[in-house]
């Protein structure tokens, strides 16, 4: 096994692209004026209208043996030519619900089996100035009677993903270590950790 | 003033696109195999290597007259044909630092002047399976001796942005109202609120 690496980048014509397409929309602004807007889109979106899910797994000790934890993944992402730290995630297949995708992808990427769905977020948009990509965040419960153990992943051939358990309250500290090693953090996961930290900060500011 | 609306969407050829391009990379996987990956990119990235900033403004009462708050914006986003709720944000100009962009965009989009920078995040990637888009989250301090007042925005022609002050601890509740009205929430802002809520939930679970 060697380091993943981008070898070359070239222009791609829309007609040759399979996984991402360019579109141009004409929209009417509040003054009634027609304007153009260019964006990228995934042709893989299933008929349910949602591209993908991310999975926030709550690893929880029923005996109090460990602090509430979650699972993050590390994988090489060719578009950014870096190893990226993200929540487990995956594209929703045709006929699949967001919850089904979440349970399937969590098990494939991390080996963990969710016992039940805690919450599915409404539809969220990922980068709405540049793409029409959308997603739902599915929070799932993964209870442990006792000790937390790392199961075996069920990766498909060609998938190279490292899964890691982290205490939820230590995410921001863990990200600092990753950054020193040259990894980058997914913006959504980073914002989750920033929100968590903000709650702690505001609580400490209270009289 | 009328509602914004998408009138039509058509395919766009890479050579005709100005604001977003398609690329194909060849990367080497950990087994040494060469693989293709398609993605979208912004040709507008400045030489600093960062596309954009989002701004988390901490509106803070020096006298304790109001709870710590932030400012969110509502704007129509043609790629998703919906009104989207986001943090204030903007593309970094050539020669501009992330912090300069943050202060400039916050004032343009909301009228608020930041008194100082609290923190600039490391580089974050926005949707690294689909695009190479990246950003930094800049947290800024906006102190008020007394009452919180909404200043006038300084929008450019063709910018239609509504700014709204929200208590940080009420973001999730406010998002539920927006969803009922047909707005969608930006995934990064939503993850921030989810992280905040998670901290509250874990605190309540503690003995």
Automatic annotation (TrEMBL), chains A, B:
<dbReference type="InterPro" id="IPR020476">
    <property type="entry name" value="Nudix_hydrolase"/>
</dbReference>
<dbReference type="InterPro" id="IPR000086">
    <property type="entry name" value="NUDIX_hydrolase_dom"/>
</dbReference>
<comment type="similarity">
    <text>Belongs to the Nudix hydrolase family.</text>
</comment>
<dbReference type="GO" id="GO:0005634">
    <property type="term" value="C:nucleus"/>
</dbReference>
<dbReference type="InterPro" id="IPR015797">
    <property type="entry name" value="NUDIX_hydrolase-like_dom_sf"/>
</dbReference>
<keyword id="KW-0378">Hydrolase</keyword>
<dbReference type="InterPro" id="IPR020084">
    <property type="entry name" value="NUDIX_hydrolase_CS"/>
</dbReference>
<dbReference type="GO" id="GO:0006753">
    <property type="term" value="P:nucleoside phosphate metabolic process"/>
</dbReference>
<feature type="domain" description="Nudix hydrolase">
    <location>
        <begin position="48"/>
        <end position="189"/>
    </location>
</feature>
<dbReference type="GO" id="GO:0019693">
    <property type="term" value="P:ribose phosphate metabolic process"/>
</dbReference>
<dbReference type="Pfam" id="PF00293">
    <property type="entry name" value="NUDIX"/>
</dbReference>
<dbReference type="GO" id="GO:0047631">
    <property type="term" value="F:ADP-ribose diphosphatase activity"/>
</dbReference>
<protein>
    <recommendedName>
        <fullName>Nudix hydrolase domain-containing protein</fullName>
    </recommendedName>
</protein>
């Amino acid at each position: 096994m060697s380091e993943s690496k981008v070898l070359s980048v070239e222009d791609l014509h829309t007609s040759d692209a399979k996984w991402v397409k360019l579109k141009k929309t004409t929209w009417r602004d509040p003054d009634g004026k027609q304007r153009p807007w260019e964006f990228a889109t995934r042709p893989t979106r299933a008929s349910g209208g949602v591209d993908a899910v991310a999975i926030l797994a709550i690893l929880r000790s029923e005996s109090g043996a460990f602090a509430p934890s979650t699972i993050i993944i590390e994988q090489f992402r060719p578009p950014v030519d870096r190893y990226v730290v993200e929540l487990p995630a995956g594209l929703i297949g045709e006929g699949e619900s967001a919850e089904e995708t979440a349970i399937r992808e969590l098990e494939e990427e991390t080996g963990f089996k969710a016992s039940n769905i805690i919450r599915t977020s409404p539809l969220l948009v990922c980068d709405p100035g540049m793409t029409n990509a959308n997603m739902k965040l599915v929070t799932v419960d993964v209870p442990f009677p006792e000790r937390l153990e790392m199961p075996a992943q069920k990766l498909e051939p060609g998938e190279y993903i490292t899964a890691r358990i982290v205490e939820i309250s230590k995410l921001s500290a863990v990200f600092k270590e990753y950054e020193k090693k040259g990894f980058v953090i997914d913006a959504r996961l980073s914002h989750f950790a920033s929100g968590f930290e903000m709650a702690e900060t505001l609580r400490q500011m209270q009289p």
